[in-house]
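=== RUN LOG ===
request id: a7f3
mode: sequence -> structure
chains: 1
length: 672
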Amino acid sequence: MSKKKTKQKSKPKSKITAQATLKGKLEVTRSGMGYVIVENVTGDVLVRPGDFNTALNGDTVRVKVVKENMRTGKKEGKIMEVVTRKQTEFIGHIQLSTNYAFFIPDTDKPMPDLFIPLTDLNGAKNKDRVVARLVKWDRDDKKPVGMVVNVMLPEDENDAAMKELLAQAGFPLFFPEDVLEESERLPDVLDSEEIKKRRDCREILTFTIDPADAKDFDDAISLRKLPNGNYEIGVHIADVSYYVHPETELDEEAYKRATSVYLPDRVNPMLPERISNELCSLRPHEDKFTFSAIFQMTAKGEVKQYWLGKTVIHSDHRYAYEDVQQIIETKQGVHEEEILLLNDIAQRLRKTRFSKGAINFSSTEVRFKLDEKGKPIGVMVKESKESHQLIEEFMLLANRTVAENVAKLNINKKPIPFPYRVHDQPDAEKLAPFIIFAKKHGHSFDVSSPEKIAFSFNAMLADAKGKPEQHVLEQLGIRTMAKAIYTTENIGHYGLAFEHYCHFTSPIRRYPDVLVHRVLQSIIEDKPMIDKKMEEKCKHSSERERAAAECERAGNKYKQVEFLQGHLGETFEGVVSGVAAFGFWVETVAHKCEGLVSIISLSDYDDFRVVDGDYSLIGRRSGRTFRMGDKVMIRVVAANLEKRQLDYEWVMDAGKEEVKSDKSKVKSKKPK
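=== RESULT ===
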């Protein structure tokens, strides 16, 4: 395992002083009171509604502390400036009069109605549900001014729900006209002079491997055998930075979003489709500009040398993961020799990675089969297979190599500001109860060093594979881990066992990758870019990534609830996925849909109490235990779309239950 850098240190919290002006995030309560949360500062600043100064819930603001409550020590302040708005698009209803219109937002956080000029109704009629954009709100204006950007049809309930999730998370639903116009002005034809400046890889066999329904192909692999018996393997990445330049409308919008959001029925893209699906997408049989990491490797996966730089490629074939998996399993198909060679090298890279301490958590992905209105009619659970691992390993290699290349350089004895992707060591407090739980299943941990902890994790995961406790140990293990973030402070990536790591391979959908491309190109040109705001950009990107992940989870949860609405009263097999004093969560085996069995619904059977260290509920009289990882039978009793909440009921005697399966529809009997 590579030598780990020191653990990332958290800054000590300071106190708020009187008359200080601080930057923080405004949180508005349902009552209308506001609190500004300031990072690395103890306490928060209370702001009364009259002192919001046009700020809305979630906005980043500057607040001036104006007084302190001598009894409680609470600080009160006034907002002096809105630095950035979390949300500029809202969902609500139009209230139309003869000479004016107002937009009434659907929100539980108080905010003023938007005044909508009649010229900006975009076809909306009285009481229509719409998406409106805040376009102007000066300090002296009593009402903010907005415009309707989309009228929502009553029958498109699913569309409205997904848009609401995105808007609440602060992701714009539509690109502004000036951004779209800028993207439309970009040339379709590759510039001949630019081609001359690049390494020409168009004659080398090149292909993409993506999900079957993908439209933005941002990475491609090339392969050719060299006269010395080694192989040249190219990892080619869409050259977004060629089209998206700093300080343009396109760049500002991409930075604001910072990431694409993947919901069950749509992608909310970081860049307009003109760029993501056309100009930069590495579509088959088209010449494209790319930024590449080209490796000379042996058949055993040893990297002899590498080259980083701008290229032009021509993809010969577009594969779906399923196509490649079939070639791997049958050893037959288009370019099977090259696919099998790349797969063999990828598996060797993977094995080496785990031998150095990378943690081998398995991953599954839930996909919904949707009808034409976006309503779920089926659930598919997809596991990571060798075709996915083939792409993953070469992307990891490229990302690691770029980070290593940049980390070697210093300017005036200082590292170049660079958006590293880091992952901290496990937190000792979170790890301790997990180790006790793992020991009950016969798995011991060596905690003498971070490296030994990683090896213990892998030994546990390998030993638990296929056993009843596998799922729960993986889930709880992941929860002990720190979250990966972007930062200029390079502490390495614990989970991958890399001393240097960054994101270079997905600039169509992640803004940090665009930053990586710009810094790397400046180094290649021997004019290293020193961006003093790089850490701020890293923090923003990490925050938007978290918001996207939460939005994606909410979207999946909505679809789960919507799917099980059609299965109320039916019984399914599930696994206990969490416990609390008020009940336990169960994830259905067939659909991965999680719901709550409340402690109240169990009161007829026994008086249950939670045992924290054991992740279990135990009945005081019967001794009946519900422990994480246990298989249970549940009945679906409620599915609340508005709250995105599923309620289950434990089926006591599973042996006497007639269980609902996909092939039979048998009415289950209620336990006595």
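=== NOTES ===
The chain has four domains: 21-84, 90-152, 182-420+503-552, 568-656.
DSSP finds 15 helices and 33 strands in the chain.
=== END ===
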